[in-house]
Amino acid sequence: MALAAATAETWGITGTTFLPAYLLIAATVGAAGICTRRTLAEPGAARPIDDITARLHDVAYLAGGGELAVWSALCAMRLRGTLFAAEGTVRAVGRLDPDADVLEKAIHATAGSAVAHRRLMFHRSVRPALAEIEERLVAAGYLLSDERRRRIRRVGFWMLGVAALGLVRVLADIAEARSVGLLVTVLLIVTVTAVTQIALAPRRSRRGNRALVALRDQHRALAPEREPDWQSHGPTGAALRVGLFGAGALAAFASGRVREIAPQVATAGDAGSDRSRRQRRRDGGSGGGGSGGCAATAG
After folding, report:
1. What residues contact 289, with CB distance under 8 A and at least 6 apart?
2. How do residues 252-277 score in pLDDT, each as one tens digit?
3. H-helix or E-strand containing 265?
4. Which range (68-77, 92-101, 248-257, 271-280) has the least confidence?
5. Distance between CA 146 and CA 68 in Å, rounded?
6. What residue ranges do the domains of the chain occupy?
7. Residue 167 exposed, middle or buried by CB count within 10 Å (0-12, 13-18, 19+)
């Protein structure tokens, strides 16, 4: 009788039976979780936007959030002559058109005196303009609302339940002095998957991702490797280029003005940093941050 008790399997299920069953449960729950997260990341658009580029800096916000939207606005304003940039600060100059973009108006009002461009997005008058862009993109289905993102994260608790089952089995096996090596390995994978799903949720919807891919393909002529003429594209094209290809695209707008922006781009790790460093070596010397062109915006 004692021998039979000692050899009884945990929960009456052998380890060789439990492990495949546990793997099947984890795979099933994982696949269901992935499908559910993908479905939640494709919300219906409550208010569709026919052309996202109609709002100059919405593309930049969609691609990189408030910081990139501010870079887009600074670039457009610099080319319009409504902003002066030097040594990491910007200052409003001139007057804006009455129909100027709301974000540009907010930045112009904030920069009445010199202000660090990297702090602009945190200023009281700029935050509402950025919030307006976000609300518009959420309503159009390009960005996910906070509630939708919470729902996506909660899907991770399904896998966390699977991890809890595995942990209970591991503890039970340890109490019976049974081998748990393979089960612990699987349990770690399941736990990491659960924690990752709970911690992470996409900011853009799948519709937003498709929109960016389509816009980058449509405006491939603005890509940094094409070295487009920033003067011919004007403020609108410059802002769109920053939105689609990142702040690093600033470095290729005007070769003589790369010197001021290049350190910031290199720090950010954007794609244009290598190009800017090569250009600095060719140009030599140093240039003033207040020279014309979009690149001086980041000065």
Report:
1. 85, 86, 87, 260, 296, 299
2. 554 434 334 332 433 333 433 344 44
3. helix 258-268
4. 271-280
5. 20
6. 11-40+147-199, 52-142+205-298
7. middle
User: What is the rounded CA–CA span in Å between residue 26 and residue 38?
Assistant: 18
Q: What are phi and psi of 61, to 5 degrees?
A: -65, -40
pTM for this predicted structure: 0.77
At residue 289's C-alpha, the angle toward residues 283 and 294, to 5°, is 85
The model's pLDDT over 10-49, given as tens digits with 9 standing for 90+, comes to 888 888 899 999 999 999 999 999 999 999 998 776 566 6
pLDDT tens readout for residues 222-243: 887 776 666 666 788 888 888 9
Structure-token match 């939207």, residue found: 69
- How many angstroms separate the Cα of 71 from the Cα of each of 1, 88, 297? 78, 12, 8
Residue keyed to tokens 């303009």 = 129
In the block, which residue shows the tokens 């209970």? 168
Residue-averaged pLDDT of the chain: 80
d(CA 73, CA 105): 10
Measured between alpha carbons, how far is 121 from 90 in angstroms, rounded to an integer?
13
Long-range contacts of 249-252 (CB under 8 A, 24+ apart): 249/222, 249/223, 249/224, 250/71, 250/75, 250/294, 250/295, 250/297, 250/298, 251/224, 251/275, 251/276, 251/279, 251/295, 252/224, 252/227, 252/228, 252/276
